[in-house]
């Protein structure tokens, strides 16, 4: 299930300025555990695709259509910038995000989300909108540091490219019979919807199996979606069902 498209202004700097300070000479600081960058070589893109396969297929059981076993590859990869977080000591890619700027979305012919939703009402924003997706973090590095670095990297990317809107799909699993998704849907509809002029329509709507939603399910939000909402994102309507 892919809950509806979320879009939010993204014009804040990546980090606040830090006042300069002088300190007495001492030991050199320890190297940072992680580094964030954009992929510059095909090998780096493939490392991101390998991590995506590990997380989505091996870890979450997603059925991926890919031309190469062990890699999550789709046609949008060729048009996107790939944000990477690398563990400094090992050189391993442990976090990734895929960024599709509007000029390359035009060359690709559509956004990824166009396959899930009718985005007609977002037309006025599309020339200023970067689509994000395929976000994942290696299971051994999920302490918050990697995702924070990725968001800082995205903020710098938006500042550098001059785009002001960020949008993407966020998935909610249905393996509990849809109870979690139903709770997420109700929570979002009650407090986190965009104005009507930015509402989109799912191509394959998902309907909750019942209106009887346990209180725990109503309170639960997937971590990625919760993070988006904290950054000011809004949800643009009803969820779409993704059978894969």
How many beta-strand runs?
9
Beta percentage is: 15-25%
- What is the terminal-to-terminal distance? 8 Å
Stretches where pLDDT is under 50 for at least 5 consecutive residues are 3-24
CATH architecture descriptor: 3-Layer(aba) Sandwich
Structural class of the secondary elements? alpha+beta
Q: Portion of residues in helices?
A: 25-40%
The number of helical segments is 6
Number of domains in the coordinates?
1
What is the secondary structure topology, with strand pairs?
Elements: E1 6-9, E2 34-38, H1 42-59, E3 81-87, E4 93-100, H2 102-108, E5 117-118, E6 129-137, H3 145-161, E7 165-168, H4 179-191, E8 201-202, H5 215-219, H6 223-230, E9 234-235
Parallel strand pairs: 6-7
Antiparallel strand pairs: 1-7, 1-9, 2-3, 3-4, 4-6, 5-8
Keywords: Acyltransferase, Lipid biosynthesis, Lipid metabolism, Transferase
GO molecular function: acyltransferase activity
EC number: 2.3.1.-
Question: Which labels suit this protein?
Answer:
6 helices; 244 residues; alpha+beta; Aminopeptidase; two-stranded antiparallel ribbon; 18% strand
Describe the protein's architecture and organization.
The chain is α+β, with helices and mostly antiparallel strands. The chain has one domain: Gcn5-related N-acetyltransferase (GNAT) (Aminopeptidase). Helices cover 28% and strands 18% of the residues. It contains six helices and nine strands. The protein has helices spanning 42-59, 102-108, 145-161, 179-191, 215-219, 223-230; strands spanning 6-9, 34-38, 81-87, 93-100, 117-118, 129-137, 165-168, 201-202, 234-235. The strands form two sheets. It has a seven-stranded mixed β-sheet, with helices on both faces. Strand 3 and strand 4 (93-100) form a beta hairpin. It is globular, with a radius of gyration of 19 Å. The N and C termini lie close together (8 Å).
């Amino acid at each position: 299930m892919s809950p509806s498209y979320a879009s939010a202004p993204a014009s804040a700097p990546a980090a606040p300025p830090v006042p300069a300070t002088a300190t007495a000479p001492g030991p050199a600081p320890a190297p940072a555990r992680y580094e964030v960058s954009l992929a510059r070589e095909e090998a780096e893109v493939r490392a991101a695709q390998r991590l995506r396969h590990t997380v989505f297929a091996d870890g979450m059981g997603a059925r991926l259509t890919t031309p190469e076993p062990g890699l999550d590859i789709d046609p949008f990869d060729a048009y996107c910038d790939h944000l990477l977080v690398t563990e400094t000591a090992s050189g391993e890619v442990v976090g990734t995000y895929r960024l599709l700027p509007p000029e390359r979305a035009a060359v690709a012919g559509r956004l990824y989300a166009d396959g899930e939703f009718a985005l007609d009402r977002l037309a006025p924003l599309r020339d200023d909108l970067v689509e994000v997706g395929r976000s994942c973090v290696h299971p051994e590095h999920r302490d918050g540091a990697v995702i924070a670095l990725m968001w800082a990297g995205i903020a710098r990317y938006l500042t550098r490219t001059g785009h002001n809107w960020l949008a993407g799909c966020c998935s909610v699993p249905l393996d509990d019979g849809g109870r979690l998704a139903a709770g997420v849907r109700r929570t979002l509809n009650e407090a986190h919807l965009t104005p009507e002029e930015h509402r989109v329509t799912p191509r394959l709507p998902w309907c909750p199996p019942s209106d009887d939603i346990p209180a725990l399910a109503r309170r639960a939000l997937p971590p990625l979606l919760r993070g988006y909402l904290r950054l000011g994102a809004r949800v643009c309507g009803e969820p779409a069902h993704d059978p894969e």
